[in-house]
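Good morning,

Attaching, inline, the backbone tokens for the sequence recovery test we're adding to the shared suite. The designed sequence is right after.
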């Protein structure tokens, strides 16, 4: 693996079986992402975008092929090692915000640290810092039902960052938002990439918005990479 390749997949494939029917969600996907890049993934519904992100995030295992992250063969990790990888290496954001309605914003952000054994005072301190990062410190004591969609997604971003991951995976993070709020969310992700060096892989149907902020665009069709465009060269 080249030293610049932080994430690398080789001949990555995922086949789902429904009774006697097999559906190939990904077909021999080979790609690499350099550390600190913001990569957008586009394609029609059913093209394999979410499957790719789920595999990169360790939420699912490939049927064949390999995934390496920072030289580590993620696709061969044990169940316990995979859980640690999800906790320590990747943060994930989804179209649905998946917040706990009974918790305040700061409690939602701090929640993942409970499983990492972090003391309560430190959990809340880190959560409050991240709410400042996403511009939501004034709403820290509000519950999800008291927040707008954009504010809820910002809480979800902060929660994804609380374990200090190296990679942020975003699966249609603007899918439930209006165009103005969508831009704000993508700007937050781009700033995290630019100023904190976070490697970001983002799925979106909004190709024009991705083109404005991403370093590279990857196009998927029927589970295969059909296009790759470098928009900005690495510094």
């Amino acid at each position: 693996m080249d030293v610049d390749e932080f994430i690398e997949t080789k001949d990555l494939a995922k086949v789902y079986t429904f009774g006697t029917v097999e559906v190939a969600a990904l077909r021999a996907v080979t790609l690499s992402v350099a550390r600190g890049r913001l990569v957008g993934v586009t394609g029609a519904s059913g093209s394999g975008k979410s499957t790719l992100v789920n595999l990169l995030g360790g939420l699912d295992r490939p049927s064949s092929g390999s995934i390496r992250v920072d030289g580590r063969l993620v696709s061969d990790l044990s169940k316990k090692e995979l859980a640690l990888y999800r906790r320590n290496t990747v943060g994930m954001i989804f179209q649905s915000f998946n917040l706990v309605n009974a918790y305040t914003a700061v409690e939602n952000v701090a929640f993942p640290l409970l499983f990492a054994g972090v003391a309560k005072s430190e959990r809340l301190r880190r959560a409050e810092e991240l709410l400042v990062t996403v511009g939501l410190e004034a709403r820290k004591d509000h519950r999800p039902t008291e927040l707008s969609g954009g504010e809820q997604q910002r809480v979800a971003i902060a929660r994804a960052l609380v374990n200090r991951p190296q990679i942020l995976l975003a699966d249609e993070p603007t899918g439930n938002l209006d165009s103005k709020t969508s831009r704000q969310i993508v700007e937050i992700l781009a700033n995290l990439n630019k100023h904190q060096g976070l490697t970001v892989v983002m799925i979106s149907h909004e190709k024009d918005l991705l083109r404005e902020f991403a370093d590279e665009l990857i196009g998927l069709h029927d589970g295969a990479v059909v296009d790759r465009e470098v928009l900005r060269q690495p510094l």
